[in-house]
């Protein structure tokens, strides 16, 4: 399925038949009554070589109201982003092509500024992998694809 075609079809279906022109009544004296949003948006890092997996994880982040996300296809890109930005959560695929998963997890959890929630996915995670990941600082260690409900629960804690 082509998402571009789906979005275009939805745009065509919901577009008004004629251009809409109306006055919202805003003028120079209008007062903004919205509450101030002083809290900075939480930012996420998604590191996976698989584009479809990155899209899936981005959708899960959006459902947890984490809409600011950066993506990396390699471990080197992910580490560069981790050094440059402050992330509330990192979603990491252990199958990144250019790094050893355990060394990468250690470097990422020890990065400054610290990333509080690191979630790892692996093709077949054993009980030993999960325990080692927890000791290394991962808040979650999931098989691929991650269980949607458990991943969502963990993301809501961020």
In short:
This protein is an alpha/beta fold.
- The arrangement of helices and strands along the chain is HEHEHEHEHEH
CATH architecture: 3-Layer(aba) Sandwich
Strand order of the largest sheet: 2-1-3-4-5
Structural category: alpha/beta
Helix content: 25-40%
Describe the structure.
The protein is an alpha/beta fold. It has one domain: Rossmann fold. Helices cover 40% and strands 16% of the residues. The protein is built from six helices and five strands; from the N terminus they run αβαβαβαβαβα. The protein has helices at residues 3-14, 51-63, 75-84, 101-109, 127-136, 148-156, and strands at 43-47, 68-72, 89-93, 117-122, 140-143. It has a five-stranded parallel β-sheet, with helices on both faces. The chain is globular and about 60 Å long. The model has no long low-confidence stretch (mean pLDDT 80).
Lay out the secondary structure.
Layout: H1 3-14, E1 43-47, H2 51-63, E2 68-72, H3 75-84, E3 89-93, H4 101-109, E4 117-122, H5 127-136, E5 140-143, H6 148-156
Parallel strand pairs: 1-2, 1-3, 3-4, 4-5
């Amino acid at each position: 399925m082509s998402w571009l075609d789906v979005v275009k079809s939805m745009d065509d279906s919901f577009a008004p038949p004629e251009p809409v022109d109306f006055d919202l009544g805003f003028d120079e004296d209008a007062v903004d009554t919205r509450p101030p949003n002083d809290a900075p948006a939480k930012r996420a890092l998604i590191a996976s070589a698989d584009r479809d997996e990155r899209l899936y994880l981005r959708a899960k982040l959006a459902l947890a109201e984490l809409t600011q996300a950066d993506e990396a296809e390699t471990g080197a890109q992910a580490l560069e982003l981790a050094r440059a930005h402050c992330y509330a959560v990192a979603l990491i695929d252990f199958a990144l092509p250019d790094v050893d998963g355990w060394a990468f997890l250690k470097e990422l959890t020890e990065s400054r500024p610290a990333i509080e929630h690191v979630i790892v996915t692996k093709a077949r995670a054993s009980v030993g992998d999960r325990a080692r990941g927890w000791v290394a600082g991962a808040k979650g260690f999931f098989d691929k694809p991650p269980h949607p409900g458990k991943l969502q629960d963990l993301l809501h804690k961020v």
